[in-house]
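Same chain as my last thread, 285 residues:
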Amino acid sequence: MARSNPLALLLLMLIAGSSFMVAMAANFYQDVDITWGDGRGKILNNGNLITLSLDKYSGSGFQSKNEYLFGKFDMQLKLVPGNSAGTVTTFYFHSQGSSWDEIDFEFLGNLSGDPYLVHTNVYTQGKGNREEQFYLWFDPTADFHTYSVLWNPGHIVFYVDGRPIREFKNMESMGVGYPKTQPMRMYASLWNADDWATRGGLVKTDWTQAPFTASFRNFNANACVWSNGASSCSNNNKWFSQELDSASQQQLKWVRKNYMVYSYCSDTKRFSQGLPLECTITNKN
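reply #2:
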């Protein structure tokens, strides 16, 4: 039986401790600003929790203090419970200007008992129309779940509890735009969109249920901070060249087979003149 090395054990404990400190260091007071809502957004629990609320008069939202150009981002959300029809909770990334880039997680509210709809989109140079929608395999209002975005030069991946649900690859060499030059901030919000959010706007917000509340915690940005026209990190970061391994690809296929309810790449009625180029490329692969 090999004898343990006290020095090695101490080193391992220090490494574990420092990793824990990094994971727990995120604090909303340091990381974000509540930007609208007239007090409806609140930072609580010593900076570890944000609640956003929506009533008949206003919703609320916050944004990251930093801008980022590539990264792996996580946020834990607990969505509006009960009859949330008409409401939209968001966690997304957006650049500035009229030709902006954007990566969206939007959670469309429901009538009590119906599933939430997870709405995703990718914009490049102000052009979106790349919607994909999913149901979830759990109740997102009962507890916190982790929603993540991997954004690197090769692809964008949307994750739910570590399981990939969507991948958008960089196909610039084939003429498809890809967001890679404009730094983005993280944004989150809760707002009323009953003109389209639930069953295409057929179900309106029931204001007798207000205020509606969504909760956010454990924002983590393992990312390149953009400041004064330069990035804080290099392509040495593990996630910078991260790709989906075979197990992740199988998970992605499972989600898309069982829980995807809409993809723009299948909407031949909407794109009657022909599907977007990335759809035809992907379908050939």
